[in-house]
């Protein structure tokens, strides 16, 4: 993904070495990263670049410093975790609904709202669409785990 | 063989064709799967991206439940789930303070077990010789490109499976079934993962490269092990074709589909008739 | 009764600032056994030494304690001064009141008291000092050089030209080492074989060099000046006295397709072969792993063809013994194995570069053979897969070097230079070719080296990208190289015809076993350990064994040659006298009380203790005993510690002396 990144990973690491965490937190790169783990596997200095990206993402999220251009990705991750906290397991319909809703509230983009809408009947035809979705039985413990981990779900 | 079974959200969601496939296939090989009772999501990309503690706690709860339910080995077919489980297990194995802290957090005692297996490892446990002997329909018309994706083989210090750069475990199984796997260059390149919804262009680009390279090396189908990869390569193949202005028509099979087909199971048994890009077998 | 003189040095301000010298002198004058106590500003200076000599004469001193700096600085100085006054130099003690007192304390009162105590210890020891004489061992003035590469050849020639006989042992069928296989060398672009072969011939013909090729050192016994070396001459199956080197045997050999070791697999050789045309000795050898006659008694064509009847299939390995006085190790290097198979669990190979999978991904030495005028393709750069001339070549630096994750942590030093050289040689041969280099840093620190690299970039048009290559794949016969340029911050992808990997430099195989035979240490990477990296780079901690060349650390040809001459000069120093002197502060065993339990024999790290017998005049056995070899003992004291009967002791550091020091403190 480096070709698409505003600040490629090697430069992010350098910024961190120089103490410029603020620039690193604002980079769009950390949200364009797909966590493929290739960087950590190859690094001859055993720098776990993928873990650094995770740390940057968490700090950017908690401080509300995430790059505005990558808002959709941040919203998606947040919607995913909110969904798990509520249900214990992922409810896909709920996730898509919540995600699209949140994005629409920010962007007002109708095309985005209705994109992939045609997918629903095709999934339904293939018995892949679960309107109700599964839930874990003990959802209380899930909520408590989230609370203990300090996940606020804000921003 | 009796295994614990951790399906993960995808296999009970829109990738339930994967579950159908592996249940049918493993059933035919006398492997019984006992689903972990009341399992929860492993956290996937979102947990490790947004909260480090959750990224360990969520998989840890599942390890604890599996151990409590008496499983020494557990199949986690989705590589994201298996990688998260392995990573959590590794972190807690070397740091007992962490293990105690997490056990308290997830309200279940985390021990050293169970051993987490991916689907390829299960087939390896069954044994290539046994698989070969059980073949009813040799797959001689299949020229698959075996696609491992990211998380089956990386990071090697966590998953410790096959070779992170030039893996061959899937090819060995596929070849034993009579198919002719092709040698190609994108075995372990990322498909775009969870960006399907939030940043579709990434998936179209990355998965497009994978399909193009498989076709360029003479493959007439792909074999995958990850439900996310399957979605990006199968469900999104039409969109990719539009994006690149070309046609692929490459059916995407789960490894259990391939094994199942060789064992003589039908498209209806395996659920391959529920894929978006259908192959000749259907 | 002792008559000890104490001399306290001010060392300018170094000691006197923190230690009250006058108080120390006054206190020491009262110590038992002290005849006189003096002080001076710089004891090591001429007047200071003169004072010591004068006191020895006037006070008839029988022991001297100098309280000053560390013995590392001036022990030899004061011993000479004392000897010049007629006193045995081993009746001198030094109390370190600088590094161990004035330099590490601030409180003057406490420092002064400590200085008095330290001198008290030395005085207590000096009272029990005995006169000692340096030990003399005879020396055989012949040298062994292990390894016949450029370093070994240089060392052998220098030692032989100094007038001493040299035994030169080389594992391969010919001398010449890696340099014989190179195309041209940096920074002069001299043809490697052109500058090396004259030296090879000289070494092969030198009247004082005895050459054992296709041989290995099997065992080493003895000590400096007196080594006994066992050499295994491996069976060549060719009678060297009869063979004329005509080469007819190689022509008729039907087994032509064996990967050539000299060409690193880029070419083929028959089962009976000469490693390369300029080999010294220019005689063939039979590969017993592939020869049909040796394996299953077939063929035998070469024997039939050989006019002088030099083929001998009944040849066997022979053991030869040589006596030498000094050993030079010059076993050279090999390249890091880029494939998956490694001899250490810490190394993982570089699967991402496709070495071993794609035929046109080769390493640096293989590239040298392909561009060498005497190489398997006669100097035409034909790529291994299809013989076509590559139009775009990518060179990747640091493959295996500077890698803490799955390679070797150190820098291999020569790769930046030879990569630049490769780009130049390539561009000289293929004028329309493109050379692309991916580097992390450029290390070009020698004479004319940086200018050389700039020449590659500015005059010969090599393109340099500062970044690593992440993966090499193959599409339609082209190698897709995906790297980055971090200076521009962009990914860089090149569609290449050939990829050359600058693999790390490692010590040659088998060096660990050889080092153990020689009692020489080696580091975690297998490089042999020098005595001191700055001041004693060619000596080892094993007396009489020297190292030179790449077996000690990665280095280029100029450095290897310089080190080889350095090692030769050390050998010459060793041979300068007919006898060698060694410090007498070594162990000795009281043979009356020794119980012959041989715990010392087992624990001595230098194998310096032998089992001996005491016999009566008629030959009857009286008793067994352990006996220290004065040539090998390094005075470490391990035997003293383990001896249950207290029969072992160290001259100059006897138990009596040590205990007297302890009691003086108490």
What report would you give on this structure?
The complex is a heterotrimer of chains A (155), B (282) and C (666). Chain A is mostly helical. Chain A is built from ten helices and no strands. Chain A is globular. The model of chain A has no long low-confidence stretch (mean pLDDT 90). Chain B is α/β, with parallel strands linked by helices and 282 residues long. Chain B has two domains: 2-119, Glutathione S-transferase Yfyf (Class Pi), Chain A, domain 2 (Up-down Bundle), CATH 1.20.1050.140; 128-274, Rossmann fold (3-Layer(aba) Sandwich). Helices cover 52% and strands 9% of the residues of chain B. Chain B has 16 helices and seven strands. Chain B starts with a strand and ends in a 12-residue tail after the last helix. The model of chain B has no long low-confidence stretch (mean pLDDT 94). Chain C has 18 helices and 34 strands. The model of chain C has no long low-confidence stretch (mean pLDDT 94). Chain C starts with a strand and ends with a helix. Chain C is α/β, with parallel strands linked by helices and 666 residues long. Chain C has five domains: 4-126, 3-Layer(aba) Sandwich (Rossmann fold); 142-226 and 320-332 and 509-575, 3-Layer(bba) Sandwich (FAD/NAD(P)-binding domain); 248-305, no CATH class; 337-506, FAD/NAD(P)-binding domain (3-Layer(bba) Sandwich); 587-650, Alpha-Beta Plaits. Chain C has a five-stranded parallel sheet. A five-stranded parallel sheet of chain C has the order 20-27-21-22-23. In chain C, strands 2-1-3-4 form a four-stranded parallel sheet, with helices on both faces. Chains in contact: A-B, A-C, B-C. The interface between A and B is large, with 55 and 53 residues.
Question: In a few lines, what is going on in this structure?
Answer:
Chain A is mostly helical. Chain A has ten helices and no strands. Chain B has two domains: 118 residues, Glutathione S-transferase Yfyf (Class Pi), Chain A, domain 2, CATH 1.20.1050; 147 residues, Rossmann fold (3-Layer(aba) Sandwich).
List the helices and strands and how they pair.
The complex is a heterotrimer of chains A (155), B (282) and C (666).
Chain A: H1 9-17, H2 21-26, H3 29-32, H4 38-42, H5 49-62, H6 71-87, H7 92-107, H8 110-114, H9 119-125, H10 139-148
Helix pairs in contact in A: 6-7, 6-10
Chain B: E1 2-5, H1 8-12, H2 16-28, E2 32-35, H3 44-50, H4 52-68, E3 73-75, H5 79-94, H6 96-106, E4 115-117, H7 119-126, H8 128-134, E5 144-147, H9 156-159, H10 169-176, H11 195-198, H12 200-216, E6 221-224, H13 227-235, H14 237-244, E7 252-254, H15 255-262, H16 267-270
Parallel strand pairs in B: 1-2, 1-3, 3-4, 5-6, 6-7
Chain C: E1 4-9, H1 21-29, E2 34-40, H2 46-59, E3 63-68, H3 71-84, E4 92-96, H4 98-102, H5 108-126, E5 135-138, E6 142-146, H6 150-161, E7 165-169, E8 184-185, E9 190-191, H7 192-205, E10 209-212, E11 215-223, E12 226-233, H8 248-252, E13 258-259, E14 268-269, E15 272-273, E16 285-286, H9 292-296, H10 301-305, E17 318-324, E18 326-329, E19 333-335, E20 361-363, H11 364-371, E21 392-399, H12 415-429, E22 434-439, H13 449-458, E23 463-466, E24 469-475, E25 478-485, E26 490-496, E27 498-503, E28 505-507, H14 511-518, E29 545-547, H15 557-575, E30 579-582, E31 587-589, H16 599-603, E32 609-615, E33 621-628, H17 638-642, E34 648-650, H18 655-665
Parallel strand pairs in C: 1-2, 1-3, 3-4, 6-7, 6-18, 7-10, 18-29, 20-27, 21-22, 21-27, 22-23
Antiparallel strand pairs in C: 5-30, 8-9, 11-12, 12-17, 13-14, 15-16, 19-28, 24-25, 25-26, 31-34, 32-33
Helix pairs in contact in C: 1-5, 2-3, 5-18, 6-7, 6-15, 11-12, 12-13
